[in-house]
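Batch queue: ligand-bound targets. Current item pairs a single chain with LBFN2T5F. No template structures supplied; prediction is de novo from sequence plus SMILES. Inputs echoed for audit trail.
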Amino acid sequence: MLRFHKMHGLGNDFVVIDAREAPVAIDGPRARAIADRRRGIGCDQIVVIEPSDSADAKVRFFNADGSEAESCGNASRCVATLIGGEARVETLGGLLHMSAEGANPSVDMGSPRFDWNQIPIAYPADTAAMPVAWEELEAPMAVNVGNTHAVFFVSDTDAVELDRLGPIIEHDPIFPNRTNVNVATIENPDRIRLRVWERGTGLTEACGTGACATAVAAIKQGKAHSPVTVALPGGELVIEWAPGGPIRMTGPATYVYSGEADL
Ligand SMILES: N[C@@H](CCC[C@H](N)C(=O)O)C(=O)O
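Prediction returned. Tokens below.
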């Protein structure tokens, strides 16, 4: 029997499995079965909290298609509230520092990476304005914030057919590990509107790492300043970043219910 917590961050919803006391084996096929909204529990990502030798916990993230992701911002805030207080958490994308003090948890997501082979992309190219276009979506900035993101600045994020273009960009061979796809509109230097096509999951209500990558891209290009509010369909996050330093993300994390399933 699988015991789980159902949680969400701005509508980006998770099945969280606390495997710190007893191991729980999750692989791609089992993750897909859990995420299935008709036959399983249903969620955007599965989050597994495990013991760690070097930190307070280790966390693994699986997308709805069963692929394992290096990082997940919204799930990290949910993990922060479950662990409580201050915690250092190991992930495939790096060490995260979490704080569940105050109304909204904060997570220090580590420093962004910009080199072509750190994104990664298939060949050396300018990652600040990649020399590529998919119809009206052109010259994205590529940023790795633990996981891979392509950020497109557009005049109206709602006008982009992200459900059609997102999967084409996600699977383009220029991104050997696929990519998350962000379309952002700068409302003013304090506020960005964002929609995200998530690698391995599709359109979601919100993406925490997408908000981090987009804020970093906007600040680096002089379009926004820190702290900046990123408004997603599911709600708002505040992102702080200064060049050379780590990214700090603050926003809500919501507990929905706990349950058991035969999956
Ligand atoms: N929902 C997430 C990101 C989840 C992982 C992503 N789809 C990937 O494959 O990198 C977030 O809140 O950051």
